[in-house]
Amino acid sequence: MLLPPHYLNAVVSIEKKTGEDSFQSIATGFLAGFLTGEKTPEGKDSYWVFLVTNRHVLEGKSQVTLRFNAIGKGAKRYPLALVDK
Question: Is the pLDDT of residue 33 over 60?
């Protein structure tokens, strides 16, 4: 998934789903991007992107939702499956 570059400068709300369209914020985090040394087919730099938060926030969970509040664009949510430690 390609994230907008300004998401790398944003605080991320980490949420759990509590209903069909309802969520509860359980923590915050931020994204850190590191160059892979490779280029995309369009010639742009490619990055590995990591979510940084406290370990206990994700322990025992199989999925969380990340919410980004972009200035002037409203909130966007992205489900994140936790498949590895």
Answer: yes
Pair 64, 58: CB distance under 8 Å: yes
Contact 49, 35 (CB under 8 A): no
Q: What count of other Cβ atoms lies within 10 Å of the Cβ of residue 75? A: 10
Q: Is the pTM of this model over 0.85?
A: no
pLDDT in tens, 53-73: 999 999 999 999 999 887 777
Beta bridge partners of 24: 16
Burial state string for 8-42 with b = 16 or more CB within 10 A and e = fewer than 16: eebebbbbeeeeeeebeeeeebebeeeeeeeeeee
